[in-house]
User: Fold this.
Amino acid sequence: MAQTPGTEIVELASGIYARLHENLTNAGILVGDHGVMIIDSLRVPSFARDLYEDVKLITDKPIQYVIDTHSHWDHSWGNEVFPEATIIGHQNCYDEMIDVEAQEIWLNKIVKANDPWSEEAKTVQITPPNLTFDNKMSLYFGGRQIDLMYLGKAHTSGDIFINIPSEYLLFTGDVAQNRGVPFMGDGYPNEWPETDAKILEIGADVYMGGHGIIGDRDSLKSDKEFIDIIVGEFKNKISDGQDLETASSSVYEYLRKDFAGWRSFDKLEDSMGYIYTEIKNKM
Ligand SMILES: [Zn+2]
Assistant:
């Protein structure tokens, strides 16, 4: 069977693959001795099954672990397809996924968007992680140490990073997306810069974000710079006494100079009011 259209599988190290999906959500595939670890189960069950079919092109080993980089629907709503797997995520990721009200808000947005997956989204049985941790968990898998790390709040309250120190390789979820603007409309702008600083300290040379193409150390620095600038600019405008509308439009115009070419920059506008309020409430 042919690979899912629109996807590309890149071998980052022996037995470690990035499964990039153009304009959609990426997944990681790690092949171990007896099973496979996948990073993110994608948006709806049919997407998770497509991912599974693509895994079978690489190996016939079963899916042993599913890692949820965070709770967002486009990363975790395929979890139900892997009932035999251990699903690992941060405790806050679990808490967000069992928050019925928050998940309803997402579902309503998805249905309203009328995308090819909107109808299927109504059938999703949201399946939270069945193994959680607080700060760090190490797995010894496929002859390597794999560190799952929580570095603080950022894109959500439960973002984790999958670090493979022997390969200087990192999976960053949606926190860093290689010159893509992450969704910031339910995130933690006050904590995000500090979390980003810790990501750089890990010392990875190559990373795969939840969207976009493979990044390097320079793009990781750029991702951090974007967050530092947007948060710093909002703080300046709020200190100057600017109201939500004035601050949002002036920060947006300022960012446009350097970041207009970034993926999803156009979607940032919808989150500006939320970011303003979050920052103002903590000043
Ligand atoms: Zn996300």
